[in-house]
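Consider the tokenized backbone below.
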């Protein structure tokens, strides 16, 4: 269901924003999709057509944190969002805000203002932006309730530029006559950069008839304007809404000054002969046959910086598809990697799954363009299907495309896969475009190689972590349990958090939770030793305090230089009692049947591994049937800049107010509370237990 254009058009008009972008977040997806664009061309907006929620991009941060964001200067943008600063190195101010209602995130809005906008966003503009987000959320909410889930279009829709007020035909004729009489050139470009008008003097100065220019971007039809700097000046005018200029040499020796005056409807261009002094002093540089445009160079820079942040193979594939398809011209893309002697489809965009299945797992000895590109290390370009058929007579036209590029993905002389780009219109692939596409393939190959190494390490770490934690909690009659473990999401996703449930005789059980210092394999290995020691001593019938004391002596004997916190509770279900001891661990929480929640401040004990003679007192508390005992590690409550006591109180409040009929749902509610409070910087372990009658 598309949003009405007026949602974005109205907020741009009411706040004076020069550029607006409206994103939708489809259900069950973690990618923001650009739905509406106002004030700039689709080419300029292309790098941000799809933004993963985890990306360090203003709108993703605003949506993820569910709060508006303001960047008041180019310096702010470059410092906080270097990728945006590299691709749009112009003066502008930016606001981003989430579109939310009743706890549901529907998308986000981005607005840009020229540099002369005040340094701060006014209260009136903030209220207007908030009202726009509420309006958009209400429309999307109603659509979802009626069974029309919000879906972004395959390509973003462009808002029509605002029209100036109607003038009578006589005034229009007079304006045309006025421009015809001018001895200097003038022309008009729309926001896409296409020429919509040029006067007679302008055609004389640029040396081209109006018919050759009308509806085209000047730097695409005039070879002497194909220097990337000229296209960059157009981009600067559109994005910053500031006048700009450049000087170009029309062969053989005519220098022209182009002055650009932008507004929300387009760009007026003033063309005059340049200072003759420049003609005498400027070197006559050879013009490349097919120079790469500024937009393509900025897209290449954006892709390079984005791939530098990609971690997994999935990230690389998604980024490549997100950036290449809208920014570099192909209609469809497939990325294939070599796996066990076969060429497997790792990812694709705008191809059907059925078609990809036909090409998946092709043997490396098959004679296909993708396989040959890898075998020879040589890219292949086919402007037409006839060219493809000539090179590969058995080829069958299956994808309905008109032109193709097959690019090998090579790292240090070793093939890792191939990139297939398909175009729906015939394409001649001039030398500079071929060089650009080969550069793209090189960037993707390097990122893919790093990502595959990361995925291998991640799989190893995951196996180690899951092997050290209990696969399932033991069943104890009369005791309901729920456990959660969430890695911090950095490094190789491994740490020292652990939990355990140890059944005992006569309706008893021991629950334990702990956190070993560090986030590497050393911490995980020590965590395994600590958990084993706790289980052994608890099984032998030691009290919680004795279990901690004996485990502490083990750690000090090992002398690893690492410390651990731990909390142990011995549950006596027939007597409705719990005996707890702590070694520097966050306090347990106790939710009573009536919903009241208490923080159990136990007698403190030192962290394990510091003092071999440390003592760990045991505290006795009532554990009535229906009472929920919550044990957790500090990752659930500890965030930079937040008082941990306040965070613990907030967690206790959430435990008190969340529905508790189902412990699994309660565990999810506590994790969700922590994620909404602030991004997690540490591993999280959570263990909930509740005795029954």
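A designed sequence for it:
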């Amino acid at each position: 269901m598309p949003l009405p254009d007026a949602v974005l058009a109205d907020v741009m008009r009411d706040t004076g924003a020069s550029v607006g972008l409206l994103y939708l977040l489809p259900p069950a997806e973690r990618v923001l999709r650009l739905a509406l664009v106002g004030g700039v061309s689709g080419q300029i907006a292309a790098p941000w057509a799809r933004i993963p929620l985890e990306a360090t991009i203003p709108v993703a941060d605003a949506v993820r944190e569910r709060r508006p964001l303001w960047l008041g200067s180019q310096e702010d943008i470059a410092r906080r969002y270097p990728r945006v600063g590299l691709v749009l190195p112009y003066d502008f101010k930016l606001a981003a805000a989430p579109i939310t209602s009743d706890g549901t995130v529907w998308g986000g809005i981005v607005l840009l203002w020229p540099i002369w906008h005040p340094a701060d966003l006014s209260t009136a503009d903030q209220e207007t932006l908030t009202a726009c987000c509420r309006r958009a959320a209400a429309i999307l909410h109603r659509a979802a309730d009626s069974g029309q889930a919000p879906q972004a279009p395959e390509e973003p829709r462009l808002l029509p530029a605002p029209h100036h007020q109607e003038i009578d035909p006589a005034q229009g004729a007079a304006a045309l006559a006025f421009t015809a009489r001018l001895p200097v050139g003038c022309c008009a470009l729309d926001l896409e950069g296409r020429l919509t008008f040029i006067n007679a003097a302008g055609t004389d100065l640029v040396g081209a008839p109006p018919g050759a220019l009308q509806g085209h971007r000047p730097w695409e039809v005039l070879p002497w304007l194909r220097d990337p700097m000229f296209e960059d000046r157009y981009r600067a005018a559109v994005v910053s809404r500031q006048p700009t200029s450049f000087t170009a040499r029309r062969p053989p020796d005519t220098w022209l000054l182009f002055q650009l005056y932008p507004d929300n409807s387009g760009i007026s261009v003033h063309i005059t002969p340049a200072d003759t002094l420049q003609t005498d002093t400027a070197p006559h540089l050879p013009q490349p046959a097919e120079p790469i445009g500024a937009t393509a160079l900025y897209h290449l820079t954006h892709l390079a910086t984005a791939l530098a942040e990609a971690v997994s193979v999935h990230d690389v594939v998604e980024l490549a598809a997100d950036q290449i398809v809208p920014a570099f011209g192909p209609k469809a893309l497939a990325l294939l990697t070599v796996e066990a002697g076969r060429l497997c489809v790792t990812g694709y965009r705008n191809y059907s799954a059925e078609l990809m299945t036909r090409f998946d797992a092709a043997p490396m000895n098959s004679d296909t363009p993708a396989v040959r590109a890898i075998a020879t290390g040589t890219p292949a370009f086919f402007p037409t299907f006839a060219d493809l058929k000539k090179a590969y007579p058995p080829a069958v036209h299956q994808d309905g495309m008109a032109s193709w590029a097959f690019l090998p993905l090579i790292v240090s002389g070793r093939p890792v896969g191939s990139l297939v780009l398909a175009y729906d219109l015939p394409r001649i692939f001039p030398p500079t475009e071929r060089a650009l596409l080969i550069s793209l393939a090189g960037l993707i190959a390097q990122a893919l190689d790093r990502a595959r190494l990361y995925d291998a390490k991640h799989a190893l770490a995951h196996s180690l972590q899951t092997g050290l934690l209990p696969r399932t909690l033991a069943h104890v009659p009369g005791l309901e349990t729920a456990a959660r473990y969430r890695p911090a999401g950095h490094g190789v996703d491994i740490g020292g958090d652990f939990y355990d449930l140890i059944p005992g005789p006569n309706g008893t059980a021991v629950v334990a939770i702990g956190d070993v210092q560090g986030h590497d394999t050393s911490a995980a290995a020590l965590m395994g030793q600590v958990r084993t020691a706790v289980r052994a001593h608890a099984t032998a019938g030691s009290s919680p305090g004795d279990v901690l004391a004996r485990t502490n002596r083990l750690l000090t004997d090992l002398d690893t230089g690492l410390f651990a916190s731990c909390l142990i509770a011995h549950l006596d279900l027939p007597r409705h009692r719990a005996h707890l001891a702590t070694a520097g661990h966050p306090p347990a929480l106790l939710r009573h049947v009536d919903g009241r929640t208490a923080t159990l401040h136990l007698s403190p004990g030192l962290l394990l591994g510091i003092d071999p003679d440390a003592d760990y007192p045991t505290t006795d508390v009532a554990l009535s049937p229906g009472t929920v005992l919550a044990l957790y590690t500090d990752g659930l409550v500890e965030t930079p800049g937040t008082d941990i006591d306040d965070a613990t109180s907030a967690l206790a409040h959430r435990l008190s107010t969340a529905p508790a009929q189902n412990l699994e749902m309660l565990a999810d509610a506590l994790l969700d509370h922590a994620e909404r409070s602030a991004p997690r910087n540490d591993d999280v372990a959570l263990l909930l237990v509740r005795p029954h009658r």
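The radius of gyration is 32 Å.
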